[in-house]
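Sample intake — Tetratricopeptide repeat protein
Collected from: Paenibacillus medicaginis
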Amino acid sequence: MLFPDFTDLYHLRADGWRALGDVGQAIASMQQALRLGPASEEYPSMTGIGTYLTLSSLMSGDTRIVFGETSEDQPQF
């Protein structure tokens, strides 16, 4: 990767993998973004990438399998 310490790129790459249906790669990219944490001040970054936004993304939709949950586990309102 051209900028290996730019957290936002890992988060965006996860979005791309998810759109392509590759949940495993999406999870791996989000986990890397979480490991890196917030981006360095040398990069323009969205607040929450590498922290709460990435974690929220990891815990939603088809990536919930990482936590052993399925759509049947969700409350029906």
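Post-analysis note: The longest helix spans residues 23-36.
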